[in-house]
Write a structure and sequence with these properties.
single chain, 300 residues, alpha/beta, eight-stranded mixed sheet, 9 helices
Length: 300
């Protein structure tokens, strides 16, 4: 049963999303609003170190502490519909995952649409991953993680690596993954009135801004249409009231059909990427589960 806190936070999200009305704003203004909000309300946990770096022209942050296991890394890809968000919006979540898993996090800012549509985000992530390999990190000691579009990007990049016969990460962690940009799942209709802030019309608009002239069912844009043979284990969390519920369920089913080890948990009463709220009991529990999943690998 959802916590009492979740009821009030959900109410606040719904009111805030309606007031912001991002679909009616210029994308530059929307980004500034989102980043400003994050800077005001996101707090880093104590004893976290943030190192700012440039990787072949891509800004990124190392998030770590003195307890991290050496030689291991989580490559965290932020969400935001491929057009919004940054290290500012996701630094706190990445830090909490770092603490619970005991593994340092690399948080890059890949290029965003519409200025840089598909496949820019994939290209940048491949650059970051290959850089990690060059730095001496074994692929078996790298985990891809991401929320929403970042979750979808984690899957898409793994597909690209497999097709290029390059080494794959040890596992994937997907939080409310956006993996079907055609919006074909039943939850887009069934949860339309329940989801406190995701709106199907804005999701479709954002998808088109990313894909431009490419078909939305391109498997590197909508990985749910891919074959997942040879994939590493997947850990998926999704909320029961979000319109992207079907994305996560379809991804899990397709991966299982290909023989992939999949851990899917649907959180009752939770919305899109609730894990980002550091005051929500369900968020703390979800992040702890992510940490436990990462820790279970023998490499860790």
């Amino acid at each position: 049963m959802p916590s009492v806190s979740s009821y009030f936070i959900k109410k606040g999200i719904k009111v805030g999303a309606k007031k912001l009305n991002l679909s009616e704003k210029d994308i530059g203004e929307s980004r500034r609003i989102i980043d400003s909000f994050a800077q005001k309300f996101s707090r880093l946990p104590k004893n976290c170190k943030v190192e700012h770096i440039q990787i072949e022209g891509i800004y990124a942050e190392w998030i770590s502490n003195e307890h991290n296991v050496a030689g291991r890394v989580i490559l965290y890809l932020h969400g935001g519909g491929y057009g919004y968000c940054s290290a500012d919006t996701h630094r706190s979540l990445a830090a909490r995952i770092m603490i619970e898993s005991g593994v340092k996090v690399l948080l890059p800012e890949y290029r965003l649409a519409p200025e840089h549509p598909f496949p820019a985000a994939i290209e940048d992530t491949l650059t970051i991953y290959r850089w990690l390999i060059k730095q001496g990190y074994e692929s078996s000691n790298i985990i891809f993680a991401g929320d929403s579009a970042g979750g979808g990007l984690s899957v898409a990049v793994t597909l690209a690596l497999r097709d290029l016969s390059e080494s794959l990460p040890a596992a994937l962690v997907c939080l409310s993954p956006w993996v079907d940009l055609t919006s074909s799942g039943e939850s887009y209709r069934e949860n339309r009135e329940k989801d406190p802030y995701l709106v199907e019309e804005l999701v479709r608009k954002t998808a088109q801004a990313y894909a431009v002239d490419e078909s939305l069912d391109n498997r590197l844009i909508s990985p749910v249409f891919a074959d997942f043979s040879g994939f590493p284990p997947m850990f998926i969390q999704v909320g029961s009231i979000e319109i992207l519920l079907s994305d996560a369920e379809l991804l899990a089913n397709k991966a299982r059909q290909a023989g992939v080890e999949v851990h899917l948990k649907v959180w009752e009463g939770m919305w899109h990427v609730w894990q980002i709220s550091n005051k929500l009991p369900e968020a703390k529990k979800a992040v702890k589960e992510i940490g436990n999943f990462v820790r279970q690998f023998s490499h860790y």
